[in-house]
Amino acid sequence: MERTQPIAVFDSGLGGLTVLRALRGRLPHEDYFYFADTRFLPYGDRSESFLRERGVLIAQALEKRGAKALVIACNTATAAAAEAIRAAIKLPVVALEPGVKPAVALTRSGVIGVLATTRTLHSERFQRLVGNHAPHLKVLATACPGLAEAIEMRGAHSPEVAALLDEFVLPLAEAGADVVALGCTHYPWVAEAIARRLPAGTRLLDTGEAVARQLERLLAAGNLLGGGGGHLTVATSGAPASVGATVDRLWGQHLPVEHWEP
């Protein structure tokens, strides 16, 4: 494996761009290949066995494509497929998960909110996370059906997103949560709107920075750090034109999008 090979980042859609932004902020001298599996969006509606098989297929294809490391920038894919992916490929793998552990360290009220997809919250991996780190605390695991899709399709400032945030976030404020983990990569796009619905001083946890630090550690340990030129390729299993329009809106500048099927 060469230092000049790119880092692969994959998500079901475009929420993982928030993770990509954190990665590029910390590791700007790397090349990245971002893959959005939008043909099968949303992952939250898929069975765990489908997500496991699809995740392994994508990971193996990215390894063959020449990636030097893999970031699973999707909480739902992590919950269903991370163990299987790690067993199937030889690359360093960093997988996203809701920030329950750091939330435990930060809470003073003993009440933690977790905003995530239904699939993530129902997963064995999430239940294990809570059982290992927060059995003594009140964890308000709040499923947010439709929120990721509304952010992606309607826009972060749309009335649809505002209505969903009222429904999902306001009960956390009423219940006294003083730390809220953003357990889906789409949610950092609306972090300010979430914060406005919570009491002043409530901490929001976005795990993108933690993922970037872990990736940096793994690359350094394997002598794989650096070697790129900051080049970014974005690909989708869906329609590049429609995906590209959403990428431009979320990213804030034009990024070419190509079609790629693992």
What does this structure look like?
The protein has 262 residues and is α/β, with parallel strands linked by helices. The chain is 46% helix and 17% strand. It has 11 helices and 10 strands. A 6-stranded parallel beta sheet has the order 4-3-1-2-9-10, with helices on both faces. Strands 6-5-7-8 form a 4-stranded parallel beta sheet, sandwiched between helices. Helix 3 links the parallel strand 3 (69-72) and strand 4 (93-95). Helix 1 packs across helix 10, helix 2 (48-65) crosses helix 3 (75-88) and helix 7 (147-154) packs antiparallel against helix 8. The protein is globular and about 50 Å long. The mean pLDDT is 94.
